[in-house]
Amino acid sequence: MTLAAEKARALALRQRFEAAGAQPVDCAILQPAGTLLDLYGEDIRTRAYVTTDPVQGEVMLRPDFTVPVVEAHMRDGAEPARYTYAGEVFRRQEDHPERASEYHQVGFEVFDRADPAAADAEVFARFAEILAPYALRPVTGDIGILTAAVAGLRTTDNRRAALMRHIWRPRRFRALLDRFSGRAPVPASRAALLAEDDPMARAEPLIGLRDGAEIADRIAALREDAAQPPLSREEVALLEGLLKVSETCPHALEHLRDIAVDLPAIAEAVDRFADRIAALSARGVAVDRLHFEASYGRSSMEYYDGFVFGFVAPGQPGWPVVAGGGRYDALTRQLGQGRAIPAVGGVIRASLLLELEGGA
């Protein structure tokens, strides 16, 4: 497989989305690093190539198209809008050195406030149609149901915020849940720190960016958290049961409605899931065979906040998803300076399609 073949396939895929009414767009390969750092924090440096430009300052090789497309739309796009694009993206692959760090990404994005469930179904159905010849396994999820569950926990704002921040880091999320529920002990170093009457009294000369007042505030916050009662066993059990839901869409809906009886915070998000199932069915998607996993999408880019989907290649456990995407309403609000519009989209890796075909 050559880069020329990959580029040609990417352009052909983009033309399929253009034929469906999407406007072709492009974005600069060098993107300002500040926007992505503000969105995701310093963690993005482990996934993107960062460098310094003498004029622009810190910049990144384009890690994906979605953020710059959203920025452009929120700045001067009309509504509703459908966009498509094809081009190189760059991702560091330290944890997966066998994966390409540069590859062609083809995308389709829908900005439409009229009927979010219908837009979700439109995007998924477009991808399913294009990918039908490749015998991929589709899977769906809904980050919005999980975030609603966390937002409804009877605990402090700080604990809810900590859990919400780490939804996309499952191991850290689990560690926090265990600690907040009392199932895991407080780390010995933290317990010793909090046991001191004045932890700052024996502090060494300060090295780093935090000053003494910031450290004292952090210690006060830790003391306040340590004084809080643990999360209830019932709520933790409900949240864990939610995370384990993995069934076909109709059966998942039944299961989630049962959970919502005791966890009413998710009821509205579950209703949106029901609307999406109906919209998918109206688009001709066989929802009785479409799989739903409540935890799906938690290792994706952190801007997804609702419906998520992926198309997986059976027999290729080391591969990333061949195609995937989801809803990112909150991202439009963050990049629109308070304005927002419901938005959903997805991307295809052209190189993986060529590999499935045996190369080109």
Task: Give a verbal description of the structure.
There is one protein chain. The chain has helices at 3-19, 33-40, 66-76, 116-131, 143-151, 157-165, 170-180, 188-195, 212-226, 233-243, 249-262, 267-282, 329-335, 350-356, and strands spanning 23-24, 30-32, 50-53, 57-61, 81-90, 102-111, 137-142, 246-248, 291-293, 307-312, 323-327, 343-349. It has a domain at 157-232. The protein has 360 residues and is an alpha+beta fold. The longest helix is centred in the N-terminal third of the chain and has 17 residues, at 3-19. The strands form two sheets. It has a nine-stranded mixed sheet with strand order 1-5-6-12-11-10-7-9-8, with helices on both faces. Strands 2-4-3 form a three-stranded antiparallel sheet. 44% of the residues lie in helices and 18% in strands.
Total beta-strand segments: 12
**Oligomer state of the chains in this structure:** single chain
Cα Rg: 22 Å
**Looking across the biggest beta sheet, what order are the strands in?**
1-5-6-12-11-10-7-9-8
Tell me the strand percentage band. 15-25%
Helical stretch count?
A: 14
Low-pLDDT sequence parts: none
Helix/strand/pairing class, anyone? alpha+beta
Q: What's the average pLDDT?
A: 88
Report on the biggest sheet: 9 strands, mixed
SSE order, as H and E?
HEEHEEHEEHEHHHHHHEHHEEEHEH
Shape field = globular
Give the fraction of residues assigned to helices.
Answer: 40-55%
Q: Calculate the terminal CA-CA distance, rounded to whole Å.
A: 5 Å
